[in-house]
Design brief:
InterPro entries: UCP033563 (IPR008323). The protein is an alpha+beta fold and 398 residues long. The chain has 2 domains: 252 residues, Alpha-Beta Complex (Conserved hypothetical protein from pyrococcus furiosus pfu- 392566-001, ParB domain), CATH 3.90.1530.10; 116 residues, Conserved hypothetical protein from pyrococcus furiosus pfu- 392566-001, domain 2, CATH 3.30.1760. The chain has 11 helices and 21 strands.
Length: 398
Amino acid sequence: MTVVHPISRAWVTTGGTGAQNYDEFADDAEITSIIADNPHSSLAIEMPHLAPDSLGQSFPQSLPDAVARLALMRAEGLYTPADDVVVLYRITAPGEPAAYGLWSMVDTDQISTSADEPGLVIRNEDVFLEKVRERVALAEAVATLLSPVLLLQTARGDELHVALAAATEQAGPPAATDTDQTGRTHAIWVVGPGPLQTELTGLAGGGELVVADGNHRSLAAQTAGLPRFLAVVTTPASVAIQPYNRLVSELPLPLGDLLARLRAAGATVTEVPRPAQIPSKGTVELYAEGRSFTVGLPVNPSLPDVDNLDHALVERVLLRDVLGLDPGDKRINYVGGDYPAEWLRGEVDAERSELAVLVAPVTVDDFVRVNLERQKLPRKSTWFTPKARGGLVLAQLD
């Protein structure tokens, strides 16, 4: 038995619907702009309240618009139905090795968030419950899952990588392709029932699966009582981890007081005569008022190792203890690796934010170790690339 299954009723794009996942943006205005330029983007369904013709409505108020948009896209032939299929997935870009994945459905009851909770799907980060509630409401409204959870196959990842590479090589022209904002090309091929489908689902479900992206979507599936959720199962050779930084729009205290409180908390604070940049593991960098600082945050040896990782120290020491901010505070913006250090500094220089916090990416070794120990990383700690494209393959809920 495998925990990975075909999609009972898939809707496969015929082109033009692909989009970044709804949680990949640093600014909601970017989503509105993308939808304005491409009304067929799946973002118009995923984030209906940010579509130009729905602005001013709340997320719940805009759900009927999401239902209507999806129905129209299907009626206009932007999606074509396919039953009992998995979908081969390849992401390519010049100078990068090809990344592979398998669009499929995964058993929700296999999700495990602690050592005493059985299951082959490991969810490794805390989440924001408000976002989970929005995903549940959207799934119930449109009766469709539009974005996948990205799962990393840990036990048979090498075998799966070889099999997916061979299958795409032999599959002929793709059913559809899509180019993302970074220039990567996303290609998909539909695989119906048969030996290849059986082989691929067996490999994809052949060991522990770690949630690399989509923690909120996986919890939404549990909260909604869905027996299975939409996933792309990928391989370790297909992904990398990039920095996941923070912007604080409004500081609750002057910069001088912030630096003094950090030192009083045991941090080392050094101003540097250069622009703040992504630091090495073990330090963070701050940028405010045109000044840059390297900061060594104090660890607590009595806590588990995961609580002394850089992102955990930022959340506990800098945000909570020094600034008095809860991780869900609206003044904190979580900014993924698609936005470089110069963009973060630019937000501060433009006075759209008052503080940029630059954090070294979590290492793959730390990520694997934390998951094997069934511990949780802080919210928004791992920015895996390349990202699975939303809106390419949908799963209808029966």
